[in-house]
Amino acid sequence: MPGSCDDLVVEFLKDSNNSMKFPYFATGCVVKGFGRGSKQLGIPTANYPEDVVDKLPSAFDNGVYYGWAQVDDGPVYKMVMSIGNNPYYNNEKKTMETYVINEFENDFYGSNLKTIMLGHLRPMTSFKNLDELITAIKKDIADAKELLEKPEENMYKSHQFFNNPNVKL
Predict the structure, then answer these.
(1) Cα(47)–Cα(45) distance, rounded to whole angstroms?
(2) Distance CA 140, CA 133 (A)
(3) CB of 41 closer than 8 Å to CB of 20
(4) Which of 21, 107, 149, 160 is positioned for an S-S bond with 13, CB 3.0–4.6 A?
(5) Any idea what the CATH number is for the domain that residue 119 is in?
(6) End-to-end CA distance of the chain
(7) Which is nearest to 66 in space by CA: 82, 85, 75, 79?
(8) Residue 126: pLDDT band with limits 50, 70, 90
(9) Is residue 54 part of a domain?
């Protein structure tokens, strides 16, 4: 059963040049997306609503990111997130689509999704065909799994953001 959630981008840090700095914290209710992740790609995604996407800082480049994710008060898992217009599908709307690297028994629409983005894997790009897209996504997942084993990335798995609902970052 989904928990209650409030759509909110929690924290964005900038360096002295006013450019993007990680980590980036976000939370919001999972909403239905285009339905392609599961059906066409075999890689189901949890989508943030438009109001969360609209709060992304302009310095946030379209692309694929990696980090940690938690659904409601469950375990924290590795994740990859696509942020952008998905040029292969010619989307007009910018989306934030998170693939939580775990096998879930059920969908979790309406659940609270917390994410910590720790780094950028690659820019958003188009592909010649669906097989190329799936191959790239599988590489993104493999790269994220490897990067998140590094101690400086792995330590965020137990960050207070996931454990304390009243955390001030």
Answers:
(1) 6
(2) 11
(3) no
(4) 21
(5) 2.40.30.30
(6) 28
(7) 79
(8) confident
(9) yes
Q: Which of 3, 48, 55, 57 is nearest to 28 (CA)?
A: 48
Give which of 33, 98, 43 is closest to 71, Cα–Cα. 98
Query: Model confidence over 4-46: pLDDT tens digits?
Result: 565 455 455 544 454 567 898 898 999 986 655 555 567 888 9
Q: Is residue 34 part of a domain?
A: yes
Residues with catalytic annotation? 97
Q: Tokens 């929690």 belong to which residue? A: 10
Residue identified by tokens 């693939």 is 99
Which strands, in side-by-side order, build the sheet including 8-14? 8-14, 20-29, 112-123, 63-71, 76-84, 95-100, 46-47
* DSSP label of 156: G
Please indicate, yes or no, if residue 166 is contained in any of the structural domains.
no
Residues pairing with 61 in the sheet:
none
- Domain of 14? 8-152
Flag whether 51 is in a domain: yes
10 Å CB burial of residue 150 (0-12, 13-18, 19+) is exposed
Tokens of 84: 């952008």
Within 8 A by CB and 6+ apart from 153, the residues are 118, 119, 147
Write down the pTM of the prediction.
0.85
